[in-house]
Amino acid sequence: MNFRNFNKGHVFIFCVYLIGFSVGTISHTIDIGRSGFLGYTFAPMILNLFWTSLVLIDPLVIFCLFTSFRFAINLAIVVMALDIFINLAFGLFSHHKPVLFGLITQIPFGIFVLVTSRLMIQKKTFREFLFSNND
Questions:
Q1: Torsion of CA 8, 10, 11, 15, to 10 degrees
Q2: C-alpha dihedral sign at 113, 114, 117, 119
């Protein structure tokens, strides 16, 4: 593996995915540490389940980036779309400021995932994506 052949732009994109879903994993882990399992008691149970499940789903995206690249990209799109939609709808409906505050980083990351996914989904593996120089 010759590291000089990396596509630097693709490495950047890949790292943003790793960082973004790591931040999600850490955030939800901290929430569970503070409030316990299903600790989002301010919200309806279905939202509580969704937000709690992200402690498993976010690292699953990271794992799948290395093992099942295309599945990971599709999962990333679904996770971000649902997370933004649910947080925005709940935040606006309930006026829950901490949920709305989280959208400050979630929306730009979600847009990044959506925009870059089209480029990424063309490749079968993360190695193929990182080493492709034709885009």
A1: 140
A2: negative
Nearby residues of 32 by Cβ (< 8 Å), 6 or more positions away: 39, 52, 55
Q: What is the pLDDT of residues 55-108, one digit of tens each?
A: 999 999 999 999 999 999 999 999 999 999 999 999 999 998 988 898 999 999
Statement: residue 2 has pLDDT above 70: no
Distances (CA, A) of 76 to 3, 5, 26, 93: 26, 26, 16, 25
Distance between CA atoms of residues 24 and 83, nearest Å? 10
Buried b (16+ CB within 10 A) or exposed e, 82-109: ebbebbbebbeeeeeeebeebbeebeeb
Domain extent listing, the chain: 3-130
pLDDT band at 32, cuts 50/70/90? very high
pLDDT at residue 114 is higher than 90: yes
Tokens of 39: 């600790």
